Request: fold
Amino acid sequence: MGYEFITLDDAQRQARRESLDRHAAIAQFSAAVPIAVILLYRLGSWLATRSSTQRGAYSAVPGSPVLKQRRLSSAGSWTSTFRAIGWWFGDDIVFLGQNWGKRDQMIAGAGWFLWLVFLCFNDTGNDYLHLTKRFGIVALSQFPLQFILSMKNINPFAYAFGSSHEHLNRWHRTLGWVIYFLLCAHASLYLNFYVQQGILAERLTKLVPVLGLSSFIGITLMSVTALKFIRDYSYRVFFIIHLIGALSLCGAIYFHSHHSGRQYVIEPLIFFGVDFVKRKIETLSFPSTVELIPGTSLIKIVSSLPSKNINRFRKYNGMHVYLTIPPGSRRSSFLIFEFAYNPFTIASVEEESGDLVLVARRQNGPMTGALAQFADEKPTDTKISLCMEGPYGSAARFPNLAGPEFDRILLVAGGVGSTFILPLYRLIISENPAARVQLVWAVRAAGDATWADPAILDDENVHLYITGDAAASGSEMTLREAVELTDRSHTNPRQIRKRPDLRKLVDDFFKQGVEDRVAVLVCGPDAMARELRAHVGVWAKKGRDIWWHNEGFTW
Reply:
């Protein structure tokens, strides 16, 4: 049935308003359905595991005939197939050289978009304006969920799914595009209506249409600056426009949506305010020293923690904090520092001294530039005040890496990604010295590893690769030669390599046990993580039991 510009009486307009409100409520609360399904699945898995444990179920030794028999059975074949499918869903979709997200979020996003589009068309008859308004209010109903997905401190989805807000950001991004496409339809249909009726110029002098058009321009600007190439060029531009735009959008839509739907912009503002206040209350200021690691672009920050705060930051290994520079420590009163919240992984927390150590690579942004300036201008024993928010991260909800859940563990770090990997390695070895764990650490130059405990580099399970000087010269450096460049007296020629062959490393690792349950964790450059996942994926598609985690801060 074609849509027409029809005139309604008061009763019909009231019925249309009730229909709009009803479908918007369905759109908002239907988000609970897939979430409930996932939670029920997790609960079922937990109950099954607990029941098996209480019955004292037999746990076969890796490599035993029992496990081989299970793998070759029909149930084992189905399990292998499901594992391969699960891995396929987690792969990235790369098109025209750009990473558009993981396959599961693209499929789920498309399905959610089609569901919302159905709600936009359902029961609209041939009323053109009903359809137009439905696109707008259905999009608006997703605002509270969108804000919740972006929250750092009070994020119910992070607790429910055992994840972190960084990993939930991909769903925040996906829902953002769904909302944007719905609003595109809403704005386009209204503009077409104004043009067809010959009232475009007149309507653009009225407050409500102007607020609507301004809101659409604002969300378009937010969507454009969220594109990867702009975020890579200046993450600060994206962050500032996104923050100011989101808050301004709620205000503009509140007055634009003068009949109903205002609750959908009030709710997210309440969520944002509560999360923001809690984050500010939990942000702590610590006296800190900042120094440059000689011969590198690395910056080392050592903060002195009061004894009452030590457990908070050392409870879980592999967590990170958001670092800010308070006004009293700034070299200038640049407003930019009010929007500078940089994540840094906690490299270590010394219980005796109370020192928390962060290691970061100097980039082109204002935060690491200011920290490098502190290090250049002040003696290493001079302390400045730095603020830390956190700790955050999904490491708090990791499975027990040192326990019986895994037979082998592969840890891969690139550059300062070792600040995440090394604490996990130390934890595993301390809790289970017999753990079969292998750590691969690739650095640009030998000096990039000098901040770590020398004992780590002596460990036979730790493999250090030099990808800069060694790769450029075409020959291996001895560690003594590398150390002479960084003025350090620790030697271990066995641990200096060329650029790591990730394919060979992965293949050799997985060939050690066909039935082994394996955990693979990586933290480093995107290209390195993608390459590693591609090589691990070869074994995942064979049905291997793999738990994968890629730690990163890319939005």
The mean pLDDT is 85. The longest helix spans residues 165-197. The radius of gyration is 27 Å. DSSP finds 22 helices and 13 strands in the chain.
